[in-house]
Amino acid sequence: MFQSANIPQTVSKELLQKRLPELREELLEVQHKLRENKAFATIILLAGVDGSGKGAAISRLYEWMDTRYLFCNAYHEERSESESARPNYWRYWRDLPARGETSIVFGSWYQEPLRDAVMGKIDDAELERQLSAINRFEKMLAYENILLLKFWFTLPKAEQQERLHDIEAKGKKGRNFIEEWSGAEHYRAAQTAGEKASLQTSTGYAPWFVIPSQDPDVRDLALAETIAQSMKKKLESGNGKPVSAPAVVTTLSQANAVDAIDLSATISKEEYKEELEELQDKMAYLTDRKRFKKFGFISVFQGNDAAGKGGSIRRLTRSMDPRNYKVHPIAAPSVEEKLHPYLWRFWRRLPKKGHSAIFDRSWYERVLVERVEGFCSEADWMRAYNEINAFEKELTDSGFILCKFWLAISEEEQLRRFKAREETAYKNYKITEEDWRNRLKWNEYAIAAGDMVDRTSTRYAPWTLISSEDKRYARIQVLRTTVNALEKAMKKKDKDKEI
Fold it and tell me: In this entry, which stretches build a coiled coil (predicted)?
């Protein structure tokens, strides 16, 4: 969920000076329109690791927006006597903004369950129960005409440690908003708890926006632009119904995990032949073991058109028993499939234990092709992230090993491969008019792919992002990742048996 956290992002002074006045004008315009028609209220919820700049971001919003209609509610661990004498959510109800107003929430209803989970005061079952209660609360807010925008600020661990050290060195120990549970000491546990919360409570009507916070200008502009565009969209809808917010909006071409793939990686022909044989032998051994019958194996291939998904799949399955695996090329849904929920056709293709299923394109087409081409509504693809995460969690909890691959090539390499397909008789079937049309939307697909990875790369089903400029390199990476996943799962099973 936090794949983009470690990607350095900056903004030039020239772009900042150009964009900032425009953005401030947009924020004020939507704020004043909202104040006039009182169509809804807005809540901006800020969370994330300590040291990521939540307080600084709030200060900037106060600088950029009209403070007459903007107020901030900060909630601390210690409740007042009045708050302690009432139910937990009373103080949040007390402070809800009226229609026409905008509220910033700092230390929200997420604070207590996340802190207790990180500090070991509650188990996973209790955390899930409290997150389910949060979902019900936020759904009610959405249907009561409150636009809820939730932002999680991320930082690499090393940078967080450096920032907190600087704060202490400068004698700013009096910051009363330091949150021990999300500090450097508990970094991993806080990231894990934050991911669980994000996955379970990111909905179409109350999504989480994950914003890398290494560069304060990038962070604050991404925050402000998303707020402005979300409020504008809700004002324009005019129907009073919950409106799904967009993914993080920014004119800064903010990098995501897909953008950060190093496309220069290569492997020599000699290394390729040697490793290919070795890894395929391991695949044959692992999938023929008795232990494999305790698992099911599912592999998902997505990527740019002409990135070499088919070639990687053929090398993966070459040494597998054809009786025990099936490759599913996924195209547009049939008439029958359209009459069912979109995950139905994938449930029907799942393998049984001891067997494998390889998906050449998959359920992720809902948040890629269907999103970009407008084949489903925005509300449908926005809610799909959570539905897909829940689907994959059920698969892995049931003993299925799931490997997800995104194969990436450059726009220039794709053009070269398209032309080669047109000029080679036995490759003509691989190139269609649809491929050329999709190419015209390269940027839209790049944004959708970045959002997909950021919102669906989980601890139990992470994405593996692979450069496919060199096809041989991509094929080896796919095999190596798969072999490692199978070996890891089987070793864990053996260790659990010994215990």
Answer: 262-289
